[in-house]
Every structure is written in C-alpha cells, then in structure tokens.
Write a structure and sequence with these properties.
The complex is a heterodimer of chains A (about 270) and B (about 400).
Chain A lengths: L4 H9 L4 E7 L5 H14 L3 E5 L10 H12 L4 H12 L6 E6 L1 H7 L1 H11 L3 E4 L8 H9 L3 E2 L1 E3 L5 H10 L4 E4 L12 H14 L4 E4 L5 H8 L4 E4 L1 H10 L3 H25 L1
Parallel strand pairs in A: 1-2, 1-9, 2-3, 3-4, 4-5, 6-7, 7-8, 8-9
Helix pairs in contact in A: 2-4, 2-12, 3-11, 4-6, 5-6, 6-7, 10-12, 11-12
Chain B lengths: L11 H4 L6 E2 L2 E5 L2 H17 L3 H15 L5 E3 L1 H7 L3 E6 L9 H14 L4 E6 L3 H13 L2 E7 H6 L1 H9 L3 E5 L6 H14 L4 E3 L10 H9 L1 H14 L5 E5 L4 H7 L9 E9 L10 H4 L1 E5 L1 E6 L24 H8 L3 E7 H15 L5 H13 L8 E6 L7 H7 L5
Helix pairs in contact in B: 3-5, 5-6, 5-10, 6-8, 10-12, 11-12, 15-16
The chains are: A alpha/beta (about 270), B alpha/beta (about 400).
Chain lengths: ~270, ~400
C-alpha cells in the first residue's frame, strides 16, 4: 500500500510543523467552502479538516453550532460535501483532506458506501467525534479497505491505560484535544499541553496534532513547539460567520489569519 | 447493520446488555473522548453499588420515606365498566413525591453521585418533571443543581420552571437548535465535557451512553416489581397486559422490565403520534423512525434521509424527543414489546375521560397510554386485566389544556 496523502505531508515536512485549518462545509454554502479550501492552501494549510454539518453537534461550542445551523439551512448533506472534495481535487492533488463530524450522517449512509464515496472523492481521513475506538471497529475496517485514515481524539482525561490502545487504532495522526471543554473554549494551558504531547510521543510514533482552543498566531506558534500539527477551527469559522456574505473580505481575512499562524509557526521552528 | 434476532425466551434479563452496554446492535457509548473517562468512572461506580446492600437499603428507604412508595395499583372500576371489556388498573406513579415516576431515578442517581464525591449536579429537562425531580434531590442532599431547558419548553412549562427555582436550582435556557429537550441534552453534555472533574450528569431517561439506559431502568424497575406484587394481591395472577407511554422510555422500561420473561404478559409501549403518523408531525421514532446514533447511543431516531435529526411534535412536552432508549429499540426488534402510537387528540380525550370518570387528572404523557388502553379494552373479556402506568399527574399541564380550549387562566 502506498503512503497515504496525510502520511506523505508529515514525511515531507521534516521539522516544519503542519497547519490544519478546519471549516464547516456548506457554511454558508458549498461554493464558498470550495473557494475557501483553495485560499487555505495558499495561506499555508497542509491538511484541511472539513466539518460535516450536523443538527446536534454535542462536542462543539456556539461558533461551530451556528455554522452547522447555517449550513443546514441549505440542507447540505454528507454526500454533497464529498462531491465538493472531488471538485477540490480537480486542481489540488497535494493537500490532505479529512472529514470531521458526527456519526449519524455516516451511519445512515452506511459504512461501506461512505468509505467508497469518500475514497472516490479524494478524501484522506475521517474523524467522527462521537465514535470512540471501542465502537469503531466496523467503520475503521471499511475505511482501511479504501486506504483511508481513521483519526481519533485523545483528551486531558484519557488515562494512560487507554492512550496506547487509541494510538494503535489511529492512523494518519492522533488529534489531542487540548482542553476539557467544547470547541472554541478559551482555557488553554500551553505548558500542560506540551507535557501531555511529549508524553503521547513517548508512547507512540504516530504524529500528534493539537486542537481546541488555539485562537491566534501566538498560541499556534507556542503549541507547535511540541506538536507535529496545529488544528485551528472556531476562529476561522467565526470569520465565515461574520463575512460569509462578503467574499472579498472573507478570503482576505481568512488568508491573513491562517498565513499569520503559518509564519509564526515557522519562526518558532527556526528559533527553536 | 443487522437488527437483533436474539430470542427473548429465558435469559433475557441476565444477558442484556453486554458489558459495553449493547442491547443487540443498540446502546453502547457513542461519546466524545473527553467523556470516556467520566463515563467509565460512572460505569465502575454503578457496577459496584448496584450490588451493594447498603446502597440498595438506602435507596429503598428513600423510596419509602421520601418518595412515598409503594403507590397503589388502583382499579378504575367505573371506566372499566364504561369501556365494557378488560378491567383497567392504574399504577399510581402520579402519587409519588413531585408527581411523577422521575423521582425514582433521581433519588438513585443522587445517592450514586454522593458516593462518587460529586457535588455539582447537571440535568436536562423537557416538560420540567425530571428537572423538578433533580432539583428536589439536590435540595434534599445539599448539592448544586443546574438544569438545562429549551427556551420553548421554558415558555410551555412555566410552573415547573418556578418550582425548580423554588427548590434552589439554576435553570439555564437553551437557545440552540430547536430549543427543546434534545437541545437541552446537547447543552448538558457540553457542560459535562467542560466540568468532568466535579460534575455528575443525572440523565432523566433510559437513553444516553452506557450505563445510563441500564441504570435508569434499574432505578425505575420498582414500578414493575410493585405492579407484579400488587396484581397478585388484587387478582391472584399477573396482568394480561401492561401499557405505558414512551418518550425516552424511562417509565415504560421500569414497568416492563420485571415482566420481560413472563411471556403471558403483553407489553405495549405507546409513543406520541402527534397530528398522526401519516402527517410526519409526531414523536414516534419506534413506530416511524430509523436506527441511528444520537446522544451517546444507537437507537431508533426521528431523522431525515441525510441523518439530520428532525423536529418532533407532541402536545406533551415530555414525549417531545426524537430518540428513545436503546433497550426499547431492541425489544421492538425481537418482538417482545409492541410499540404503537396515540395522537394528540386521542391523548386529550383520554385525559378528559379520566378526569370525569375516575377523578384523576393524568399527565398528558401518561394519557397516551390511557388512550391505547381505550382501544384495547373493549375487545378483551371482562376477566382480563390491563395495567396502565399512570406515570405522572397532570397539574403541570393545566395551562396547555386551557390554551387548547381557548381559556386564559
């Protein structure tokens, strides 16, 4: 089996840390999402996490809840999100794409059909927030048979006894949730995150991405000193919420925010 | 995904759920990583205390002395005569302290929270009955209480909101999504994720991640155990049918569970048919929904073809929920329980009947079960017995009833 697109991005990065922006697909519509994906790449994205809108996003804070509501006003579906990834792939074969969301849209489509459609569209990995590895056996097997990575979360509450098991089941990268809370919360403790990331890396070889609570270039740079990748979501989704009807401003602000993080992370990498 | 095909003859109550909380393909723990640890801690605590004699004794003492159990199994003679068929018996959960079965579960979970050293209690509520029952036990044991309630429901159930506040609880309005029970549950989950160290989440129905469906069932099983004893006492045998309303399904599973292996007892769960199943405006996932994953478990849901949860409709706020406990999903698939629906209109008619004929104002939720008994009884002979679980009293619904008749109180 050839190296996955996600693994390839980590391999070629060397000491450079990956930047993984998240946006909710279909917010405010899928045309905007497709254009934003290209802007994110120009600004320095290595992997894009595309949120699948869901009516009951239990692990998300108000910013991403509002994005889901905006997307669902247009009845955006998981199948349409995958079609958008396919369009993205027409001009970008390099940037990895991860679908992130909740189980029920996947459940109703059926695991086999979902995995086949995702692979055909050029998706590289899948992260379902409400699917812990203990319940994930069947879905992981389907994804693996289509060479798709299964990304799982670790959190500050994950005990050591489970940590190794979760890392073993994950592929692509492991996503460390940097705080006890929902997406977009503001109580990030950089030193604590650093020590936890080092601990995970002492147990497993899998790359560690850190997300939840990274709001600006400074926090991205600080976390990137230990993590292999930085995930940033709510800050970007808030920009879509604010400027979704004004494409020029939206793309400019999105580029500046993501590129500012990229630059700060690269500088932190040089000084380290 | 396969549906369950297990036989229910024999070992049903011993075999299910499995160690991970699966009832066939249903149940389980579909939760975000941050909650895995507190949920595991809860599973372990529950496993330990459910077999602990001191815990059981304290629970039973509270049910007797604080809740007022056992409540009667009452023979509704005038109503039975009017229906002209089977005898109707009412299990009077409405006579419990706080006026519904919900207190059975909140007492049990509060005792568990105390043993686990958790001092901050959160809960979700729809009609407000579970919120009141949670606020009550928090006052009883001096614990902080935060209740999440949809903004829509706060308007619909103003008296219960005031009751919770009187009891010292903080009621937090939920403004996301459809602003009803499912959104209150989402918001309580979000609170829990952010406060896992000191917080115990008292879920009010037999749904959610393992061990909630089992735990809520066990705490409510006192209903079915009493029905069994009281039936033997009054009639010398088990009832021919037990009928209960099903929203999330906590009163129904409590009434049904002790009878699962008594195959001669028909068990009937009655969902909220709203404007009628054919209209799509209802809250009957077992009758007209599909399996999916929501709120920590796999079960039947009201959802669209893309897997989005759809808004439900019922005159009764307590049944206005798009999911149902996973054990009900499984009992439907294996055919042990029959699930049907009663419409708003049928429930309202049954409410008025019970008020006028028996002098009892039932909760609109319970009235759905009454409405189905009305359909069953006439075709059964007069020596047959139907037990209807009267899960709550209807005082909380008088504003709704008055509104429907255009009366301002």
């Amino acid at each position: 089996m050839s190296q996955s697109r996600i693994a390839a991005r980590f391999t070629e990065a060397g000491n450079r840390k990956l930047l993984v922006p998240y946006i909710t697909a279909g917010d405010p519509d899928l045309g905007v999402t497709l254009a934003l994906m290209h802007t994110l790449v120009k600004a320095g994205a290595d992997v894009i996490e595309l949120g699948i809108p869901f009516s009951d996003p239990m692990a998300d804070g108000p910013v991403i809840q509002a994005a889901c509501e905006r997307a669902l006003k247009n009845n955006v579906t998981l199948v349409q999100v995958m079609e958008t990834v396919k369009q993205f792939r027409e001009t970008d074969d390099h940037t990895a794409v991860v679908l992130m969301g909740y189980m029920n849209p996947v459940e109703i489509l059926g695991y086999a059909k979902f995995a086949a459609l995702a692979a055909d569209a050029g998706v590289d990995g899948v992260l379902t927030v409400d699917l812990p590895p203990e319940e994930a056996g069947e879905l992981v097997a389907e994804l693996r048979s289509h060479n798709l990575d299964s990304i799982f979360l670790l959190s500050p509450t994950t005990p050591d006894s489970r940590l190794r098991e979760v890392c073993d089941k994950a592929s692509g990268y492991i996503y460390y949730v940097s705080l006890k809370g929902v997406t977009g919360a503001a109580n990030l403790d950089t030193a604590e995150v650093a020590s936890k990331v080092e601990h995970i890396k002492s147990i497993s070889q899998i790359p560690v991405a850190v997300g939840f609570g990274i709001r600006d270039a400074a926090s991205a740079a600080a976390i990137s000193e230990t993590a292999d990748a930085i995930v940033v979501g709510s800050v970007l989704v808030a920009l879509v919420g604010e400027h979704g009807q004004d494409p020029d401003t939206l793309h400019e602000k999105m580029f500046d925010t993501v590129n500012g993080m990229r630059t700060a992370m690269d500088q932190a990498g040089v000084s380290a | 995904m396969n549906t369950a095909t297990e036989s229910f003859d024999g070992q049903i109550t011993q075999q299910y759920p499995d160690k991970k909380g699966h009832f066939g393909v249903y149940g389980g723990s579909f939760i975000a990583e941050t909650l895995m640890d507190p949920v595991t801690e809860l599973q372990e605590a529950y496993e330990r205390y459910r077999l602990d004699n001191e815990f059981i004794a304290e629970f039973e003492w509270e049910l007797k002395n604080f809740v007022g159990r056992p409540n009667p199994l009452y023979h509704a003679r005038r109503w039975s005569t009017e229906l002209g068929g089977a005898q109707i018996w009412l299990k009077r959960e409405d006579l419990n302290h706080t006026g519904a079965h919900k207190i059975n579960n909140t007492v049990g979970q509060a005792l568990l929270a105390r043993r686990m050293g958790k001092k901050r209690i959160i809960a979700e509520t729809g009609a407000g009955q579970h919120g009141v029952a949670t606020a009550t036990v928090c006052a009883r044991w001096g614990m902080e209480c935060i209740v999440y309630m949809g903004e829509e429901d706060i308007v619909r159930q103003a008296p219960n909101v005031f009751r919770m506040k009187l009891l010292g609880a903080t009621v937090v309005p939920v403004t996301s999504g459809s602003r009803t029970l499912k959104d209150a549950l989402n918001e309580a989950m979000r609170d829990w994720v952010g406060n896992v160290d000191d917080t115990f989440y008292i879920i009010g129905t037999a749904a959610g991640p393992h061990p909630y469906p089992t735990m809520v069932r066990d705490f409510n099983s006192v209903i079915g155990k009493e029905i069994k004893e009281q039936s033997l006492e009054h009639t010398g045998r088990l009832p021919d049918a037990v009928v209960a309303c099903v929203g999330g399904g906590s009163n129904a599973i409590g009434a049904f569970h002790p009878f699962l292996e008594d195959s001669e007892v028909a068990l009937v769960g009655v969902e909220a048919g709203g404007d009628g199943l054919e209209t799509g405006r209802h809250a009957a996932p077992l009758s007209a929904g599909k399996p999916g994953v929501l709120h920590g478990n796999r079960t039947y849901l009201m959802e669209d073809d893309a897997g989005q949860i759809i808004e439900t409709h019922s005159v009764s706020a307590g049944l206005d929920y798009p999911g149902v406990g996973p054990e009900h999903a499984w009992l439907k698939d294996i055919g042990r329980v029959q699930y049907v629906a009663a419409t708003d209109t049928e429930a309202l008619e049954a409410t008025h009947k019970l008020c006028r004929i028996e002098g009892i104002i039932p909760a609109l939720e319970s009235a759905h079960a009454l409405a189905h008994a009305v359909k069953m009884a006439p075709s059964m002979s007069t020596d047959k017995n139907i037990v209807v679980n009267l899960s709550g009293r209807g005082d909380k619904d008088i504003n709704t009833l008055a509104d429907i008749e255009g009366i301002t109180l």
